[in-house]
């Protein structure tokens, strides 16, 4: 009798464990479908405030995000380095949304302005505004894959300043305002190169700058999560923009517009790190399953190929000039 009871207990426990281990991925899948396709986006204006700040709104993801935020009724502070491109974005927003959306341009070169100056400028321009959302989107990458020693010093400095320092100092200007009114959302646009999936050789400085921003976001998310400020890191993989030079979008390389629509659905939902676009999230799942050494070797091989092709192209560009010089002499 005692052996029968213990047999029954063992079978019962094994069945329970089997059921739980089956439930976990099933529940994970159901949650994934909910957050990717069904969960309604937050009403950002009502929830956080009527103004949004977007850095780098003159192209790519930042421009598309500015339009998305405007379509949700937020007024915009557009922070960029090029006055005419900023004005063109502001004009396009006015044309699409009319007087419903107010825009203000803030001209600041984030690569050439000191952190404290950026912070002071931002403190000045946000005075009196009901700042609800900050999107730290402005970013710089290399023109092409390169070894660390091949990257121009100016490019290294620009990447560190725009991708890490500027986001830090703008956040520093905005957090006290949000903390005072006990609400606000800060979104940092990261990259799949941030270190969570694999190494990123030949784009080392870019990847390292994104790793900084990830840890920055993750840590201040903990510091401020009980004060009403939601801080989130969003991870795009490839998006067809000026930065990546992909001319055409596809399922796995969306347009900036498609990515920005997905991005907005995630703001304020509590996840401090997220991959907003669903095909990217599938790619990340595969990346997580692959062994580290395979990923590291593959990515180095992939970017080395890109570097080789870029150098061949560059040498073809240089050759006609050399010929011309020769024929002139
Ligand atoms: N595209 C992708 O596949 C991808 C993937 C992962 C992460 N991301 C991240 O997404 C963000 C946006 O990238 P994107 O692809 O949209 O790039 P993009 O098309 O090159 O646009 C970058 C934006 O940043 C602005 N910017 C650059 N340097 C600046 C400076 N010194 N001062 C002020 N503004 C400056 C640009 O202004 P100008 O118009 O004046 O150049 C532009 O508005 C970046 O943080 C990037 O790292 C992109």
From TrEMBL:
PROSITE patterns: ADH_SHORT (PS00061). It is found in: Endoplasmic reticulum. This is Uncharacterized protein. It holds the Pfam family adh_short. PANTHER family: ENOYL-(ACYL CARRIER) REDUCTASE (PTHR43899:SF25), RH59310P (PTHR43899). The keyword Oxidoreductase applies. The keyword Transmembrane helix does not apply. InterPro entries: NAD(P)-bd_dom_sf, Sc_DH/Rdtase_CS, SDR_fam, VLCFA-Steroid_DH. Keywords: Oxidoreductase. CDD domains: 17beta-HSD1_like_SDR_c (cd05356). Belongs to the short-chain dehydrogenases/reductases (SDR) family. Gene3D superfamilies: NAD(P)-binding Rossmann-like Domain.
């Amino acid at each position: 009798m005692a052996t029968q009871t213990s047999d029954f207990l063992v079978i019962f426990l094994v069945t329970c464990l089997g059921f739980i281990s089956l439930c976990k991925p099933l529940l994970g899948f159901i949650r994934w479908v909910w957050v990717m396709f069904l969960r309604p986006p937050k009403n950002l204006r009502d929830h956080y405030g009527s103004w949004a700040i977007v850095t780098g709104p003159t192209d790519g993801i930042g421009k598309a995000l500015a339009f998305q935020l405007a379509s949700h009724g937020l007024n915009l502070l557009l922070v960029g380095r090029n006055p005419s491109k900023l004005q063109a974005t502001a004009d396009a927003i006015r044309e699409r949304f009319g007087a419903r959306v107010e825009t203000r341009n803030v001209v600041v070169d984030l690569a050439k302005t000191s952190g404290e100056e950026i912070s002071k400028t931002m403190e000045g321009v946000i005075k009196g505004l009901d700042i609800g959302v900050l999107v730290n989107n402005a970013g710089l990458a290399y023109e092409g894959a390169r070894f660390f020693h091949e990257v121009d010093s100016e490019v290294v400095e620009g990447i560190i300043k725009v991708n890490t320092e500027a986001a830090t100092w703008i956040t520093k200007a905005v957090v006290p305002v949000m903390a005072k009114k006990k609400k606000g959302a800060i979104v940092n646009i990261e990259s799949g190169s941030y270190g969570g999936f694999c190494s990123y050789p030949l784009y080392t400085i870019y990847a390292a700058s994104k790793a900084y921003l990830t840890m920055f976001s993750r840590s201040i998310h903990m510091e401020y999560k009980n004060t009403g400020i939601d801080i989130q890191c969003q991870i795009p993989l490839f998006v067809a923009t000026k930065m990546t030079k992909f001319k055409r979008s596809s399922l796995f390389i969306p347009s900036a517009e498609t990515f920005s629509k997905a991005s907005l659905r995630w703001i304020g939902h509590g996840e401090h790190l997220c991959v907003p676009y669903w095909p990217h999230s599938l790619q990340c799942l595969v990346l997580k399953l692959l062994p580290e050494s395979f990923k590291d070797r593959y990515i180095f091989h992939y970017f080395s190929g890109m570097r080789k092709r870029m150098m061949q192209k560059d040498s073809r560009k240089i050759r006609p000039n050399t010929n011309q010089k020769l024929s002139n002499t």
